Here is the input.
Amino acid sequence: MVTRMWTKSQTQSTIKDLRKAGYTVENRGGRYKIIDPETGDVAKKNGKSLFTALVGTRGYLVIYHPDLLTEKQNGL
Here is the structure.
């Protein structure tokens, strides 16, 4: 799992991109999570949530599976 602090705009952009890619992202109890459309439960891989974003005082705490997102490194 990867844990990062993101700005509001980074988080909203990622959620928008996930939805465009076909994922269902919902706000459940103040946490954005990917939902499995077949079960209606939080989508998991290896027992861990694929994506979670929690609102914080300085942005969002984002936790995601490394297979879900690829980070940009050094502008490449």
In short: The chain has one domain: 2-64.
